[in-house]
Amino acid sequence: MKLWAGRFSKEADERVNDFNSSIRFDSRMFREDIQGSLAHAAMLAGQGILSQEDEAAIAQGLEGILQDLESGKLAFDPDAEDIHMFIEAQLTSRIGQAGKRLHTARSRNDQVALDLRLYLRRELGEVEALLKGLISELCGQAAKYADTVMPGYTHLQRAQPITFGHHLMAYAWMFRRDLLRLRDAAGRMDSMPLGAGALAGTTYPIDRWQTAKALGFSEPCPNSLDGVSDRDYCIELASAFSILMMHLSRLAEEVVAWCSWEFKFIELDDAFATGSSIMPQKKNPDVAELVRGKAGRVYGDLMALLTMMKGLPLAYNKDMQEDKEAIFDGVDTVKLCLSTFTPMLATMTVLKDNMRAAAAKGFINATDCADYLVKKGMPFRDAYKLTGGLVAQCVREGRTLETLPLAEYQKASPLFQEDLYTAISLDTCVQGRTSYGGPAPASVLRQVGQMRAFLQELGD
């Protein structure tokens, strides 16, 4: 018999029971459901709505259920409609009439809204810890390779010389924004829906502020309709997860390219690569490729939530049961990707000589050649055109700017002198880019220091 069956003259069709049930996925919130029920019972007793004896029996019963679920002694009933009814039925079977009084002054609508916020708050702490770990690893690698010259790219064409450390710190700054987005979303999740009831609160003299404080919220939701029907926090988290996965996917794409023989800038550790069933020479960057693919999965979770909510009138509608599978999948996917990606980066081998050799080709010091002329007094546009002509000459003759004789330079302009070759050397090009945020080794190390200070300020 369902707990809501009083209005009905017959049992629901078994197909409806299966269709309606959410126990297979919302059972993961059992700790939060018990936590919320303990706080609710304590508040009811404090307000004189529940006797102290009943509250003590409820607390003892709930603690026993929690212990049994965590130890595996108690299994979830697949026939239960949801985690809330499962725990309430278990409680009533253990302590009798007192268990039936627990649901006074609340509804499953505000109960599930509370459980989901509590669960996501806990999961967010784990995601943050993993994200901090990734940022910290990027900082460590960036400091190690702060002076490792590599080509920077635009349009996937070699553009200007940078360092590998500078490249990695670009991603560290992206992930810093992701961390702040998650923190912002958590702040907007910091209101407590319990006590909103089904939609219109309750006539019982409850103290929602007491419950909010007991559960670690700064305030109760100020509107009962909004309290039970709000799923903005799921959508906002899914959006933040999607942006985070986009950043991970971009870095994953670079890892895939860098591992290829066409680049060969890095080599992944054997523990984070796979082989081919037919080609014995292959070493595939499957971790990076899967991260790239799973970004689309998280985008799908976001779209599912947006589409599910877009046409719902106030207040609660059964459609909203679909929120959990989507946001749970988003949480699980992000955690899985972060926990795998960070050690992959930590164990990679950086092939510095290959990066340097690539930087030596492609005329990526052409801008520095033009800047040399500008510093001698030539207008930039004239210097740009002249340097472009020299690059074209080098291409025709199979030379580079470093190997073009000074006499050829001086045919183009008498401003060129012997010091040109120092000015256009890769090391000079990189070390001279000391503008704030630039790729000079000192700048990279400054960025690393800034990022580590940021992580320290956040604390645990």
TrEMBL record:
Catalytic activity: 2-(N(omega)-L-arginino)succinate = fumarate + L-arginine
Keywords: Amino-acid biosynthesis, Arginine biosynthesis, Cytoplasm, Lyase
NCBIfam families per the UniProt record, alphabetical: argH
Native source species: Candidatus Anaerotruncus excrementipullorum
Pathway: Amino-acid biosynthesis; L-arginine biosynthesis; L-arginine from L-ornithine and carbamoyl phosphate: step 3/3
Protein name stated in the entry: Argininosuccinate lyase
Tagged with keyword Lyase: yes
Domain Fumarate lyase N-terminal: 6-300
